[in-house]
């Protein structure tokens, strides 16, 4: 029987065929020998039909495991001598699949990691590499010597054809790696490399990592911990010119190796002490081998720069040659901060080297930030220009705004941020401008009133001041406390939200509610200027302390405020706010009950405003009543004690507290499936229907903390979702602790009052447009054809006069002055300074 038996292989890289040393099969796969054209071909059984067609003649079959060990003749004979060393055999590889190709895989260990590892596994420590570092063939393959691999493909294919070893040749399109710098095709190629044997101590690295405090926690526990647990030996050498030379010399004759640990050692060995440690100097240094008389020559590689990053704690101090004591005192570092991408970079190289050298972590705390992406979610790219120029952001919004935006973003939680300058603009609007306006408010009125540092010192002590002052001072101290705790835990993302929240408390509540205290003319009030001075002293203390808390977040604006409010008035003060210590908390100024009460008040006002907004009720339209529905005594006390403030904020005539929701709201309930589902199972439907049918009084019982029996089950408040349906003429908004009900009935009287307030607002606009001083008195002439509006103005003439400083309010028979709209009516208004 005369036939040749072939192993059929498939490759997209013919240039790797001269480097072939083995063919791999899968142990579990079935293989078939197919007779075709007078020859026989081994392929995977599952590939027979695709390759040879449905009527292929299978003459033998075998499991992959039976084929392993069989020898073959390689496609090219350049390295045929390696047969003696075990080459050109069938080996096993788990990576072999039968989805494509032939199920037999050509192995060129110099050009593929899988190939290399499979040969090692098979006990074949062999490698041939007839391609140089430029990708050109060497003289070892004379037919293509000097040719680039891609050019060589065609020649090699022709040679295969001529020797009858080409079964089929076709063109396919597939993806291929290219160099991102030079845009030229890349090849995989084995090169000799130096490794750190990380796998030997990776379990210890995992243990050491558990002693490090990571922020956020999950990065260290999961992402980094998993990476360490699966760490592979670390390739630390690079075949480049510039870099730190690997300090290893090898004999050119025998196996002798020396790792040189210092210049002293090098000098002792070679008699030379170079002052330049770059390759072109160090590579010239040689000495005689102590074992054989050969020449000791440095290995050509340099260190990967990541090895140097990992050596930072020692390298920066030139340890152990210098600064031993200093190193020991400062190692491990208290904290490092870097981006999430460094889990495979710096964080990793630091812990590898510190574990190997000192059996310690290199850092105690690690703060990890996420990456900032372009607005489109892609990486920021200079070539795509998909992000705004930072210097334009600085010019437009200021560096502080950008900084505050970034440190209040998901980046601080190691999450990605899509950068948009709208977010920066938002910081200007909600943080910088309110802070600046508060500072400006303080200085404007302090200057107008001639308030001096002595005046501020003469103000009542904080505990004697009005409640509003005590409240903001307490809030400030609590903030300092909170920021300190979070900072000490490295939780920067928990620092900024309360800090920025304080600006809201300061500007939208304290200053806004206290304005009149600052406006009041000096010496005017009966009780002297105590209240006014308390307000100024409080705002001064708050501003000057708050900027100390805020300085790391907004370094420039706080410095400006510091220079103007502190440094200018105190020659002893440090020259910069950034030279000051972080403030200490004064626990005596903290009043938790007051903070709680004020939080309640602000929440009532917020709910009330939401109600007005949702009902499209203008702020100037007075309403009869806001009812706070609560059974909580502390809420009731807070609301009752501040009813006037709430009434003013919400423009209602009356604020009342009611423990009984029943008068304003009908309560009903729905089943809470999350609470009941797991215990009730199939009975859920029946019980849910019974809950939905509960009467108002039953739901009240639940809200008050009782239990009710439905369908044979005892249920409590946690088992239901309470729904409130307001009675007609009332709207309700519920917060977590209580609900607010607003009486929306607008009586004629309320409507008239609302109209009068609109008129006041129009007149204030006219005053502003006319450039009048706040204290200028005016005479007012008004005219309207609308009797309803006229009636409102006449009824509230005294109020309008008082609010607009009009000494006379006169109805004109003719249109006069400026025309204005109030609702659907037209009114003419004319003002003259008296
Ligand atoms: Zn030697």
List the SSEs and their pairings.
Layout: E1 5-7, E2 22-25, E3 30-36, E4 39-44, H1 48-52, E5 57-63, H2 64-67, E6 89-92, E7 105-107, H3 113-121, H4 149-162, E8 195-196, H5 202-209, E9 213-215, H6 217-229, E10 234-235, E11 237-238, E12 248-251, E13 257-259, H7 263-270, H8 279-282, E14 287-288, E15 295-298, E16 302-303, H9 305-310, H10 312-315, H11 324-330, E17 333-339, H12 346-358, E18 363-369, E19 372-373, H13 390-397, H14 399-407, E20 417-418, H15 421-448, H16 453-457, H17 467-488, H18 496-519, H19 530-550, H20 555-567, H21 592-614, E21 623-629, H22 633-641, H23 643-650, E22 652-658, E23 665-671, H24 673-680, H25 684-692, H26 696-703, E24 708-710, E25 713-715, E26 720-726, E27 730-734, E28 739-743, H27 748-769, E29 778-783, H28 787-795, H29 797-804, E30 806-811, E31 818-822, E32 825-833
The chain binds zinc ion.
The site of zinc ion has 8 residues, from loops.
Task: Please characterize this protein's 3D structure.
With 834 residues, the protein is α/β, with parallel strands linked by helices. It has 6 domains: 5-162, Isoleucyl-tRNA Synthetase, domain 2 (Alpha-Beta Complex), CATH 3.90.740.10; 196-369, HUPs (Rossmann fold), CATH 3.40.50.620; 421-590, Isoleucyl-tRNA Synthetase, Domain 1, CATH 1.10.730.10; 595-661; 665-726, no CATH class; 748-833, hypothetical protein PF0899 fold, CATH 3.30.2320. Helix content is 39%, strand content 18%. The protein contains 29 helices and 32 strands. The protein has a 4-stranded mixed β-sheet with strand order 1-4-3-5. A 4-stranded antiparallel β-sheet has the order 13-12-15-14, with no helix packed on it. A hairpin with a 2-residue loop joins strand 3 and strand 4 (39-44). Helix 5 runs antiparallel to helix 6 (217-229), helix 14 (399-407) packs across helix 15 (421-448) and helix 17 packs across helix 21 (592-614). The protein is elongated and about 125 Å long. Zinc ion is lined by residues 251, 253-254, 256, 289, 291-292, 294.
